[in-house]
Amino acid sequence: MTASGFLSQLLQLAVALALAPLLVGWVNQCRAWLQNRGAPPLLLPYRTIHKLFSKDAVVAHGASPLFRLTPYVVFGAMCCAAAIVPSLATDLPFARAADAIALVGLFALARMFIALAAMDVGTAFGSLGARREMFVGFLAEPALLMVLFTASLISGSTSLPTIVETLAHRELGIYPSLAFAGVAFTMVSLAENARIPVDNPATHLELTMIHEAMVLEYSARHLALLEWAAALKLFNYSCIGLALFLPAGIAEGSDWLGMAAAAPLLVAKLAAGGFALALIETLSAKLRIFRAPEFLGTAFMLAVLAMLVHLLLES
After folding, report:
1. Is the sign of the CA dihedral 278, 201, 29, 45 positive or negative?
2. d(C-alpha 282, C-alpha 278), whole Å
3. In the predicted model, what is the mean pLDDT of the chain?
4. DSSP output for 210-276
5. Cis link prior to 197 (omega < 30° from 0)?
6. Which of 40, 75, 179, 190 could pair with 229 in a Cys bridge, judged by C-beta atoms 3.0 to 4.6 Å apart?
7. Which residue has the higher pLDDT, 112 or 288?
8. Which phi and psi angles does 251 have, rounded to 5°?
9. Phi, psi of 17 (to 5 degrees)
10. What predicted TM-score, i.e. pTM, was given to this entire model?
11. Cβ atoms of residues 87 and 242 within 8 Å
């Protein structure tokens, strides 16, 4: 591990921690504008996290150490995922030890802990949210793996930096395999980040909520870490999408001038992606929970079709 690579790794992690709440604030603003409502402040997620860190935590009676440990595990898993995904440069020493499959494993680890913590207290809402979260995750993870396998077949590696370097140097053109994989990844990203049409992050109705049901018993610093982790998850999925389908602009190696040029480009890409997410949520209707298998099953079929198109047509 070189010193430049280690510094590049730390810089990208710091950028992820700083920009993740901003991305959530931008999406919320775009949704409000598209729905002709008064937009919340762009920096509201930062204020919310700061306010929660300044409060005293209240823990439910009978909560096990797992309940207290979960926010730190989930937040740590999202930080490790941010360290694997190349957002500014491809010189990521951590990525050599953890590839795209390990990245999916980190998401699964966070899901398992938050589901166990939701059931730990024994409330009806927590158990309901945990069952729905595992139900969605069971359907979303295979589709995500198929998308990543399609990219790995093209690059010959499951390492995300290698995938980025390979895809960034391909000739400009329309590739059917990546088109199918892109649609599948978008559908999986909506489900994994509790967005419409699978979940609605702005509601607290017990008949519809998934993520919110699992964090109702948390407060103060524990809730702040979980909200920050949720923002990091959205940021990570956005950067995975950019790395797979819009890798242009990501610096190779630890070129500091290239990283300086990649930073504003990353912000522009995230801004465009955030607006697209808000547009999708505005134009879509919330699905019934029992329609989620059809939605994610379609994503899985598109991802498998992407692999078959690449294997048969090599395009």
Report:
1. negative
2. 6
3. 88
4. SHHHHTTT--HHHHHHHHHHHHHHHHHHHHHHHHHH--TTPBSTT-HHHHHHHHHHHHHHHHHHHHH
5. yes
6. 75
7. 112
8. -70, 145
9. -65, -35
10. 0.93
11. yes
